[in-house]
Hints:
Blueprint lengths: L2 H27 L8 H25 L7 H23 L3 H24 L6
Amino acid sequence: MSYETLLAIHKFTVVMTLSLFLLRGAWRMMDSPMMNKKWVKIVPHINDTLLIAAAIGMLVVAGLNPLQHNWILAKIIALLAYIALGTIAIKRGKTALQRNLAYVGALAVFGYIVAVAFSKQVLPL
């Protein structure tokens, strides 16, 4: 698969990840019964798997080693923080305050990841 195709898949799944996270976060805050729908529990994981697969594919096709490019390593570390905060925000947070703080934190980390992707700098500002 070409780098351009993988990049297009990656960009699309990034938009879907953010959209699904915003939607699930809003439903969680409203205690919506939508959170119990099977597709709500499955689709985000499928999308995120495609996102990561496309990212790995781009690294392979471009011959990039994250250990040689600090900005890529920063994105990977930030991704782990986003996942941790996201799971607290959506399902593991014990109180509304914990969930809301984790939600805001996850969105901030997501913004950092996007900024790093565009700037290709560990400190994009």
